[in-house]
Protein 1
Amino acid sequence: MVIKEQVERHTISVQVDNEPGVLARVIGLFSGRGYNIDSLTVSEVDTTSRQSRISIVTIGTPLVIEQIKAQLHRMVPVHHVRDLTTSGSHIERELALVKVVNSGEKRIEALRIADTFRARTIDSTLSSFVFEITGNSSKVEAFIDLMASLGEMEVSRTGVSAISRGATADMPISHGAEE
């Protein structure tokens, strides 16, 4: 009898030097080993020391996740690697822009759903709306699923951005700090 390990979803934050080729090397680590990236966001978070934070959502067995973290730790421009899924409570948010093309009663229903989800209307024409929604991925997905029944749709999603809860700065930056 073969026992199959459970596949898990993990959110990993990586603080790296903001220099050419670093993101390509991180992505190459995943693609070269056949690991999938479900979501990837990156932005400079510290202009003083030129560091960026990469948030990666991936799935894998516990062994695969540990291998990913170990390989990330070994990369030269990496300063911190934190698995937010296993290191305690954390906050995840994603932003999506959702365009719905419709008319008549479906427009009223689109506005009602947007209000329920606290989505903002950021563009409106006689035959379309563009909504901005922010929340965890399951909230964004539920909103998109409901809007899909109301007309032709176009969606742009940012991917997950995440940070740990609490009074500890797990990935501190020097930006604006007194020296």
Protein 2
Amino acid sequence: MSERRLRAGTESVARVEFEVEFPPGHVACYVVDAGVPVLVDAGMPDERGVGGHGEAFREGLARHGYEIVDIEHLVVTHPHVDHIGQVPAVLEEATPTVHAPVGVRERFSRDADALAERVRENASRAGLSGDRLADAVEMARESLERDRSLLPPAAVDHWVDPDEAFTVGDLTLTATHAPGHQADHLVYGTALDGEYALLSGDSGIQPFRPVVIHDGLDDGHREAIAAFRRGLDRLDALLPTPDRVYPGHGPVHDDLRGVIRRHRGSLDRRLEGVLEQVANGVRTVPGVAMGIAGDDRSVRYLLPEAMSALAHLEREGEVVVTVEDDVRYYDPA
């Protein structure tokens, strides 16, 4: 784990990095000096990733002169495990005002068994079977139960609406909905030390595009590609244009427009690549996901992107679907 003040940009932001086993090898949260300490996202829980993250979190805060008890506001960009992992420690030791995307409230109210059954139906029709099907179903169930235990809805004081402006300390944050990687994802813009800063979570990251997970293999996968594009459009339309971006992965940077352009290109290439796979005889979601993964990556987190891409291409009329034995097979239109 590493921590540093970001002298190249504002001096009011401290970045705390947690080592993780997945690319790019770290996830970051930030402490913003808003007259009072404001924590934006909360890193990894102790049981995931590399190392003892709870102790490292404390040490990272201490290096910047903070203790957990000092945190007066906790702002969440999205409810993925690597962004809410230390929320329980903050809630136990401090009394922060907790701000989280409003969409999370409904998402976390779902029955885990009902979600698992819906994912089973979608995944089965997509061609998953055996251990891969069982893993997808359990992953959906366990993710919901784990994430709402890390971020208990009853602990959220303020459910943030898209486009809402609200005050934390002496700063005003403006929320913008940027879905696709996660359906409820918000980014937060604020004037800070003479710059306009964007606290962006898993949006606006470089050098790679975040995977299209949206809501996994739930029904929202059908809208995920379009949602990702809408999120990029909203980021591109931000005014004022952010001078500096503070993402959850990758470096702090000043090139939001360039990142948006590259992410659009990456998404277009993904759709083109999936269409090419179908033209070459790859007819199922698992087959497409394996083609995307190649020899070096797990298909686990690529299944939602493959499923979303095929659903988008079907909607656009570029592929057609044949159902055989209740499994969906894709062919060129």
Protein 3
Amino acid sequence: MNEIITFTDAAVSHIKNMLEKTNNSIGFRLSIKKTGCSGYAYVPAIAEQVIPTDLHFTAQEGLPIYIDPACESFIKGVVIDYVADSNIGLKQKRLVFINPNEKNRCGCGESFTIE
């Protein structure tokens, strides 16, 4: 299977660290939900069980990835990075989703629309 999404080394390292700290984790799962002022929001999660309908592949360093098939067309080509953001002088690290399919993002950055 071609990879639907890709990860930077920083994101892989962060996610693998989270998996090690979570009991019963089997991998990283990504889906989206309708929300916010623009329409959709990413829902990253630590997968604890296999959902038979999920799309599955292994990213670099053996990271197991599960994708909700209902969101495949929305997230195809997404690059996930892990960065430090400065917000009012505070540095906060978080996953960032770089999506070539996004048309707009709301002002608060919570939700996005697709072309």
Protein 4
Amino acid sequence: MLYLLVEFSDKINALNVFRYITFRTGGAVVTALLFVFLFGPSIINLLRLKQGKGQPIRDDGPKSHLLTKKGTPTMGGLMILSGLVVSTVLWANPANPYVWIVLAVTLGFGLVGFYDDYLKVTRQSHNLFSGRTRLAIEAVIAAAACFALSQLGRPQLATSLAFPIVKELLFDLGWFFIIFAAFIIVGAGNAVNLTDGLDGLAIVPVMIAAASFGMIAYLSGNIVFSEYLQIHYVAGTGELAVLCGAVIGAGLGFLWFNAPPASIFMGDTGSLALGGLLGSVAVATKHEIVLAIIGGLFVLEAVSVIVQVTSFKLTGKRVFKMAPIHHHFEQLGWTESQIVIRFWIVSVVLALIGLSTLKLR
């Protein structure tokens, strides 16, 4: 809403600063951070009071988790989403449709995750929300968003798949683009969800990816920078940098409480929502393939589960000691902090590789 102050910049010259996406992105980071810092303790206390026993720990997971994580409240995604929404509404241009579409996906996936978390904490059991039903709801939300996004872009670009490095190569998918893009968003949401298994493991890679896509959105939405870098110009997507900034701020605030030993877990409420957000921004900016690079850690976690399940069903043997793959390393004797920090390092390296594709044309 602060963007509306630009209308008075002819009278008060200082208000002209609200025109700049970079300034408003910085404001979004600080606002979301302060919001989570200020209201986080109250939210944690409320969730601990309402949930009682906290998130149920899986019996088939690492045995150490039954001792170290039992009783910790979940649904910490509510902290992140509340800070993210407040900050975005305050700093983003309310007339920009990309912001509202991505926010709609984020909150829609967040509601799906919230319902799943609610069933877990109230009935102290997993697998109460049918996986097929959950995926179907996510697919409908994602498909609706992708249809809306396809109506905003240039006709020759809206339904096309762009390839990194090869600047002129576009593959027009037609109406199949909606199915493909929805798959990207749903896949991103569930990949982040699978990564969220250790204290701090998911939120930092999410912030790294958000920072990367904030930069991509800003460059893709700026005709001068996009022409210089020879990436596809998508008018209006620059405003998504503000939303990505809000993710970084809210994520930093959440990490303060999620750092080992965690006072609260993100839960499906946060992981599904944040993954859906990253997928939506990637689709909006036409960088779907780059998402697989920058978010390579999430892809690895998801693939490890697919490989494990497929191998066990076909051969009766497991490829990993336990899936997702971060549990495999736990079984190998790595400490939780070793796994988390090393996975953060991997995320940084992958982000740098992904961002390098902006110049390699």
